[in-house]
């Protein structure tokens, strides 16, 4: 349940539907499920096997593979923590809009979100002022993360028993309501109309693999950490299939939820769906609220349901990104869970204030772009190379088969050693070439260095620093 909560997050609601449409509509499901079964699920089985076998968070798990690989474990827990720093900011936006839904005070214009709410300066070069509503939301979110994590895995188990099913139920309610609206069919058609000619485009296939990697929460240390808490006889392979299919199913359902209402808005305004703007924050904080405001009955109720669903989807992912770092500190230096959680939440809160500024939206966009396209891909690649080539991979396969109803064969070894590394290397190479040819959004070089290169480099260097600190302690 915790792993499903981690995998299913805000990206399922606002990213998958848009990526699906942009890459062939209903035809995109073909490369998506190919990617799911050839890369997503095999990598999930790998991480579950490592965590379950090592019985530790990533730093100690990789150290058990070989002492010189401990840095890879720290790398795997630092990247999701950096993601959490700006992920909670989006959740803070959702928290504020949940409050605004009581009287629909969010308005219906882009200026309301960008200028009035965020205080957007229009550029990362002008810091601007801190948004008070966002700061208040950050306090609430970081406090919730601390309360959930500080007592350890038993508290997490109780929380996810509530936060995993509730947003799915709310999403179903919203979908049913959306499908009854005039214009809903046009929105669904926009979402699912297959364009099979796009299947010959290699970029569509790469987009499918990228969506699977980023959506499932693999290559983030999360699944290794959660698997370390599993009982010795827990079914590893079944868990991997259930979690991956639950994530894919939720993404697909979210498309109906979103585009039925988007179709209604387009019909109400007498415009085409393409004219509304349906990517990222625009979809969630401008397009969808505008549509909700036009509902003839119970607009506040359905607005509240939407943002409560986003918050409950998001909170599981948020604390899952912090938990590997907390477990790493706890296992490394024997810091108590409560103290380690408190330290990371306080540090996280103050750093996340940068993204609550007038330039925060732009810094969030830059950091996310480089962490997602370089940080996560590099971790996945290094993970496959270390476990596939520097360790006897068949031992992990045998460990998974010992407790699993679904037996995996040597085909799994080939996927981990050859197929997944090839795809990840291709994604990395394309990202590097694309950023060289087309500097990201035309930002100045110092902005790219500060917001993109610096976080990635800091994560890499800190991985070795933590490793050295431990060695020095042992020597002393």
What's the short version?
The protein has helices at 2-7, 10-14, 16-22, 29-54, 58-65, 70-100, 110-117, 132-149, 153-163, 165-179, 184-192, 202-216, 222-227, 236-269, 280-293, 299-333, 337-352, 360-389, 393-403, 410-437, 445-475. With 476 residues, it is mainly alpha-helical. It has one domain (2-475): Up-down Bundle (Amino acid/polyamine transporter I), CATH 1.20.1740.
Order of helices and strands: HHHHHHHHHHHHHHHHHHHHH
Oligomer: single chain
**What is Rg?**
22 Å
Number of DSSP helical runs? 21
What is the level-2 CATH architecture name? Up-down Bundle
Per DSSP, what share of the residues sits in E-state strands of 2 or more residues?
under 5%
Secondary structural class? mainly alpha
What's the main sheet like?
Answer: none
Number of domains: 1
| Low-confidence parts | none
Roughly what percent helix?
A: over 70%
Query: Can you tell me the CATH topology?
Result: Amino acid/polyamine transporter I
What is the terminal-to-terminal distance? 42 Å
Q: Mean pLDDT across all residues, rounded?
A: 91
Using the coordinates above, name the CATH class: Mainly Alpha
How many strands in all? Answer: 0
User: What gross morphology would you assign?
Assistant: globular
